[in-house]
């Protein structure tokens, strides 16, 4: 079983191979940004709306044209085929999107029953019609859809934006377990200071396209 | 063939219909009388001119002239396809995608029909080549513009879905596949409908024209069937090529959706 809440122990990035590294990354209104998220670390980014948090994540996922480079374990984004990069460095957006009628049609590799249970979703959820799911159910299912691909790095854009308190805790626990178990690097955009307090080992503020590190008060 | 020759007086009687309709429009304040008269005048002039051009062309049936005529037709059709798009590809692509696919499909189909089916001598005999190309081109143009319009609108509307699929590691081909299939289907609907309804609901224009001009009905029907199949082939292959080229252009080499390569018409 996964622990319900992580202790926010400060991660010391010494001697380990950096997992996700941004090198002079620049996109519209954002950057240049240098950032290193080591394996198993969760870094949070906060900032006013319009500060470019989403643009930054989109650039890292290589969904927007950008300058500079992103690296995953020493492999450059521009050297890998884009689909392969995006399966390893996976972006989960706030508003989940669906294209087939049935939930299960969006899961190529099926789904891990334990994870479903952890998120408070019944096993029958795969048979549901997408149009009948609530926004919160869709958001949790979209997260599972991405996690089933086993990404090495996660780019999370307000992953609990539409969730109630209970579901938020469940999602945080699942992500914490995934990060520890897979030693995944997590870059998490959140506007909720108490959530950042719970999940982040380091945190940054994005202001006018620049990152500034915040200490823990 | 012994067609009844039409005198200018005969045409004037038909023109009375347009004048009467314009009068009605004025009376009911529909506000279309000016457009109606202008377009009637335009079609009269355009058709008379093309009649003259065809007469000259038929008298000088040499390959370079036929090719020139075909080139002008295809360029005009390419422009028409572009103008009908609500969202157009920027740069030469806006004109090039439609024109190239029409060239590939309409030309191939016309040349195939001339050389293999009709077997005229010379194969480019303009009496056959130009009307045939015109009919195939006109229909292919419709299919391509419908398909392209649907594709670009769909891509713009479903941007978030397409980008989610890309973010999940799908290639651009996979991410756009639904929109692509839909666009090709939409481009093919008119010709499929035309083939199903032909003869029962509608008597196709070409066949009607031939019958009016004195051709035995069964001969006219055979030509109409040939033309229908040629049109379906030209439209189908043309739409597939155009939609596929445009879909490719909507993504860059990093499989990113590039809606900045589209612009709204009139901007």
Number of domains of chain A: 1
Cα Rg of chain A? 17 Å
Uncertain segments of chain B: none
User: What's the multimeric state?
Assistant: heterodimer
Instruction: Look at the structure and give the mean pLDDT of chain A.
Output: 87
What is the terminal separation of chain A in angstroms?
A: 31 Å
Strand order of the largest sheet of chain A: 6-7-8-3-9-10
Number of helices of chain A: 6
Helix content of chain B: over 70%
Strand order of the largest sheet of chain B: 1-2
Strand content of chain A: 15-25%
The helix tally of chain B amounts to: 9
Largest sheet of chain A: 6 strands, mixed
User: Could you give the order of the helices and strands of chain A?
Assistant: EEEHEEHEHHEHEHEE
Say which CATH homologous superfamily of chain A is assigned: P-loop containing nucleotide triphosphate hydrolases
Count of beta strands of chain A: 10
* Count of the separate structural domains of chain B: 2
Summarize it.
Chain A is of the alpha/beta class. Helices cover 27% and strands 25% of the residues of chain A. Chain A starts with 19 loop residues before the first strand and ends with a strand.
């Amino acid at each position: 079983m996964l622990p319900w809440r992580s202790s926010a122990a400060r991660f010391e990035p010494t001697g380990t191979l950096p997992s996700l590294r941004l090198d002079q990354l620049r996109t519209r209104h954002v950057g240049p940004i240098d950032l290193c998220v080591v394996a198993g670390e969760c870094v949070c980014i906060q900032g006013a709306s319009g500060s470019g948090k989403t643009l930054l994540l989109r650039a890292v996922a290589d969904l927007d044209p950008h300058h500079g480079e992103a690296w995953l374990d020493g492999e450059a984004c521009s050297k890998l085929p884009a689909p392969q990069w995006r399966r390893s460095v996976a972006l989960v957006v706030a508003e989940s999107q669906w294209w087939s009628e049935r939930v299960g049609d969006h899961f190529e590799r099926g789904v891990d029953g334990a994870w479903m249970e952890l998120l408070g979703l019944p096993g029958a959820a795969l048979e549901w019609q997408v149009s009948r799911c609530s926004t919160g159910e869709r958001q949790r299912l979209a997260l599972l859809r991405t996690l089933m691909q086993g990404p090495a790095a996660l780019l999370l854009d307000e992953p609990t934006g539409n969730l109630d308190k209970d579901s938020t805790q469940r999602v945080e626990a699942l992500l914490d377990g995934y990060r520890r178990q897979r030693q995944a690097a997590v870059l998490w955009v959140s506007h909720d200071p108490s959530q950042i307090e719970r999940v982040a080992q380091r945190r940054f503020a994005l202001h006018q396209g620049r990152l500034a590190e915040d200490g823990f008060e | 063939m012994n067609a009844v020759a039409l005198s200018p007086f005969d045409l004037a009687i038909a023109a009375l219909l347009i004048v009467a309709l314009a009068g009605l429009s004025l009376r009911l304040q529909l506000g279309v009388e000016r457009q109606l008269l202008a377009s009637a005048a335009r079609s009269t002039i355009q058709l008379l001119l093309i009649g003259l051009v065809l007469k000259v062309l038929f008298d000088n049936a040499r390959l370079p002239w036929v090719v020139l005529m075909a080139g002008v037709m295809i360029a005009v059709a390419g422009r028409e396809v572009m103008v009908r798009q609500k969202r157009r590809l920027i740069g030469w692509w806006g004109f090039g995608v439609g024109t190239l696919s029409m060239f590939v499909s309409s030309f191939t189909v016309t040349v195939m029909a001339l050389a293999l089916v009709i077997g005229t001598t010379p194969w480019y005999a303009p009496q056959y080549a130009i009307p045939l190309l015109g009919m195939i081109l006109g229909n292919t143009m419709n299919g391509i513009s419908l398909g392209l319009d649907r594709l670009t609108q769909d891509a713009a509307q479903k941007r978030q879905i397409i980008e989610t699929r890309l973010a999940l590691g799908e290639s651009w081909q996979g991410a756009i596949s639904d929109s692509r299939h839909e666009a090709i289907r939409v481009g093919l609907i008119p010709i499929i409908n035309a083939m199903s309804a032909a003869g029962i609901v509608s008597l196709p224009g070409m066949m009607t024209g031939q019958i009016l001009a004195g051709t035995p009905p069964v001969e006219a029907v055979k030509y109409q069937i040939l033309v229908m199949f040629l049109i379906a082939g030209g439209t189908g292959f043309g739409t597939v090529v155009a939609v596929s080229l445009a879909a490719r252009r909507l993504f860059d080499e990093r499989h990113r959706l590039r809606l900045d390569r589209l612009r709204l018409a009139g901007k």
